[in-house]
Amino acid sequence: MTLRFEVLARDGRARKGRLSTPRGSFTTPCFMPVGTRAAVRTLDTADLEALKPPVVLANAYHLMMRPGPGLVEQMGGIHGFTGWSGHVLTDSGGYQVFSLDPKVDDHGAVFRSAYDGSTHRLTAEGVVDVQLQLGADIQMALDVCPPSDAPEAVLRLAVDRTAAWAARARRRFLEAGGPDAGASQFGIVQGGIDPALRVRSAARTTEVGFDGYAVGGLSVGESTLQMMEALEATVCCLPESRPRYFMGLGDPVGLVECVALGVDMFDCVLPTRLARHGTALTWEGRLNIANAPFAADDRPVDPHFPDSPIARYPRAYIRHLFNVDEPSAARLLTLHNVAWLLALMGSVQDAIADGVLDRLRHRVAEAWNRPVAQSQRPGS
User: Fold this and answer.
1) What is the number of domains present in the chain?
2) Last residue of a domain, which of 268, 290, 315?
3) What pLDDT, on a 0 to 100 scale, did the predictor assign at position 83?
4) What is the value of pTM for the model shown?
5) In CA terms, which of 4, 8, 62, 126 is 20 to 30 Å from 333?
6) Cis peptide before 67 (omega within 30 of 0)
7) Domain CATH code at residue 178
8) SS (H, E, C) 103-145
9) Does residue 76 contact residue 286 with C-beta atoms inside 8 Å?
10) 281 bridge partner residues
């Protein structure tokens, strides 16, 4: 395996770790900003270099549609194309494809492009080939993504197909020389909110022998209790020696709660999407900076985060930029939100090392006016 994972410290089930690839290493638990189309919305590569995220995401489906994996490969892969020298993880695009109401069979999924209406087939092997062309450091296997409230028969079929596709994807990855190219591959666990199906999916996915394991199909509308129960059932079945990745979670309270269960990696569009709509992540909770009370507020966006990239600007100025539709408004608030989440995860790492994660959990829950999930105490 080209990926190595070392646990550096524990606090209950939570763990601080180091993940190493041929490109370098980074510390977990970590948050990974999403750059769906090879760009984090409103930011450029120089911004990312200043923020220093451990990994940046891109989406194989979107890049397969435009500009095409062949062109990206011609440009030196996604690193040469974007000028980003850090780690890149590419999602398979399965979640996006399944939102397009595809025709699915055991072989793959046929869908119409959201860009031009053209018809395409996505297969476990084809997704591997695309991601190898893109040159991702970590690539995801293709999975089946049904709604979490889908009927049990639909969820069971999704689990079975996800397992079958996982085996095919792993075989293609190894045959195509993925490890020789310095790439790693993660499998994905499905099963909706049914703990028993989650256990079944985790067992079948880990049998394949991936470099890491992701939890998919959660944080998509189910209750917090349902999410945590399904996650706990999943994590208990994943190997201690491999990194665990919760796909699509960026809520600060949820991040810390899931870390307490032993999750190592997270991604979400939340910080960038909120920023474009004038909302900041702060130690006072969500702050809608466009609201009238901030019109003459001379405090920084988050006085409790002095290292914010936009700490020099008063709230009144950021509000003004939004109110006059100045494009820099979204960029500045995106810089802040991404930096805030990265700093939060740094605090999580320190708390695990110091054995005080429970204290941080309560601080985050209080700031965001949310209860701590009492059944998820570290070590419980």
Assistant:
1) 2
2) 268
3) 98
4) 0.96
5) 62
6) yes
7) 3.20.20.105
8) EECCCEEEEECCCCCCEEEEEHHHHHHHHHHHCCCEEECCCCC
9) no
10) 286
